[in-house]
Amino acid sequence: MEALAREIRFGIRSLLKQPAFTALSTLILALGIGTNTAMFSVINQVMLRPLPYPQADRLVWMNEAGDEVSNRMLSYPNFVDWRERNHVFESLTTYRTWNMTLTGTGEAQSISTGMVTADYFKVMGVMPIMGRAFLAEDDRPGANPVVVISFGFWQKHFGGDAAVVGKTITLDDRAFTVIGVTPESFAHQGSPPFWVTVGPMNWKDRDTRIAGNVIARLKPGVTIQQARTDINAVAQQLAREYPTENAGANRVNVLSLQERMTGNVATALWILFGAVGLVLLIACVNVANLLLARASSRRGEFAVRAALGASRMHVVRQLLIESLLLAFAGGACGLLFAILSMKLLTGVAQEIIPGVEGLSLSYPVLGFTLIVSMACGITFGLVPALHYGKVDLHEALKENTSRAGERQGKRLRAALVMAQVAIAVALLVGAGLLLRSLSLLADQDPGFEFESVLKMEINVARSRYQGKGELARLQQQILDHVAAQPGVEAATLSAELPGFAAGWTNDIVPEGHTPLKPGEMINVSWGIVSREYFRTLHIPILSGRTFSRDEDAEGKPVVLVDETLARRFWPNQDAVGKHIKYDGPDWHEVIGVVKEVGIYGSESQPLIKIYTPLGRAAPRRTLLLVSTSLDPTSMVPPITAELHAVDKDLPVSNVTTLATRLSQEVSPKRFNTALLTLFAAVALLLAATGIYGLIAYSVVQRTREIGVRIALGATPREVMRLFMGQGMKLVLPGLAIGLAAAFALTRLMISLLFGIKPTDAVTFILVSICVVLVSLVACYVPARRATKVDPLVALRHE
What we know:
There is one protein chain. This protein is an alpha+beta fold. It folds into 4 domains: 1-51 and 272-398, no CATH class; 89-223, no CATH class; 412-442 and 666-798, no CATH class; 461-649, no CATH class. It has a 6-stranded mixed barrel. Strands 13-14-19-16-18-17 form a 6-stranded mixed beta barrel. Strand 6 and strand 7 (174-181) form a beta hairpin. Helix 2 runs antiparallel to helix 7. The longest helix has 42 residues, at 401-442.
């Protein structure tokens, strides 16, 4: 230990004698370790850390799937059968969010509410800190309405009143009795302000799939695969018993709750983590090159040590200690860089990456930094240590040490530079693909107008405007008042936004197409819209017409279909005048065919679509879309005033432009692109630094040779070409290796791309040109310095 302490002190003095080398190496390592620490903190918090529920590994998420649907919510009767017939779950609950109107606290508010079954808090393993959770009798038709409120809602609206249990709040014009308050730390899918039970809604129809998805707690010792097998058997049994109601779905999606909550970002996060790992590898290679050059100049020192009795292990140990000191210094500085990066990531990504809020240093993150620092120190320290640890005393003491060291380390340093270039190329290709993808996305024609469209959400309480007639009149009043405003070109109401995955689906039977089996139907996306929908969003009607005012208000049996449905079922025919069945036994006439609208920012094929009059389903949550010739945001006050003129208690929420909402949908793609581009730029900079360092070192080592060449008549251009060629002989093989690696690795990114293949030739060519140009600049600077060598000075150099 005394000898180790002595060598550590010597290593510190040795590094302090070369402050420029030490500072540069520490900075490079801090950049690599810091970015890795920041990304690992995100990975740890979002994907590795268990969910904040007791025995969270036993929680699973489920919904229906099948040949016609990949993701479908359950009907309440199906959920009851799942609960009663399974053999693998301790308890189950449905979960979905439902907008309810809160009144009695000032202006009416539309608030997203957690709608669950009685066992919800039992499944999640969390009990209220005040009052009680739901009981089975709370979850039955006709039960008194009760609510469990969140800690935040309790503090904000009840001022933390300890006697809150038993008080009431008014939701959808009904008095709900507060029975409990959740812990402050409890959050699930955004932690809505309150939770109500689904049972009193009396959704008894098996083909009304609005009960939600299912969260279940596995019995001890049961695996997810066992649960999947068991619940799939139940689903297949229900499909046989109720073929019409369960058409298209005879399987169950079963995922761990953690996988479900992080699945949308998992691939991107692991790719970004791999990218920063490659940046760290380049940083290590760069520092290894610097250490090789430094060790080469110390070859005489090593020879003297060996002559005085030092073993090879002693020399290797000394070099490793110095590299570890550099690594720990880089790790300490990297932690500071990581802390700043975490704050930036939290601010930018909290709406993109679920669970990233409150990102900070933790023991696992500190442990990761320590391990990475040690690994880096050993990795880049072993290269010079093993290369120069064995010293030939005769040769080392006889020859000029700088030339001997240069000859021995030249090939190794060249190989390291090629590795840097290859890694940088792979990262640049990945970043280039994302940039090209984002550019194509920006130029995408979504099939509808969104730049000049304002969006508002309107929720009508179920206790008000009873009957389709009253609700239809309210909705028509809203449209008439809004359409009369100056600057409004058209206004419409819709149950969902265009360009998004289907929120409403239904099963249809087209005229002339008998289902393959009794009860088997075709699942389609169901647009519930008012008659001005197509004019408001500039969606072309290819043939036929839109709904009349009466058809819209009364929900008459007419539909419009998109061109995909028309081509699929009535090729080479006019679909107008044909009929389809959906949501019941009645036939509905096709009165128009419209252009297909895809899912914005996705190349996946959307479900074929039908459009029905608003009065047909009478949804209480609708989206008001207003096309305007003015700035859409300037229309918010007058339109809101008109809505409240129709009904002062009408809640208006989620007010934004359609362009902004679509932009939010692709913000994860922009975030991934920005991060990977940043990492690739850092990698290219480090690689260019490595090229520059190697050529500059070569110029210094060959100063006498340059002087001789110039004295014998070599022109500056020839000297320039000599060193530029030396650099490009390393860059071009590295470029080829990097392109081959990118060709293989970018296939992992296919889910992040839009409009291009992972082997896009344009991207590969542009990256190659970029790398060659940057490398030429990196070679040019030291090569130009070589042309300025004075022959007389060079010949006296040694």
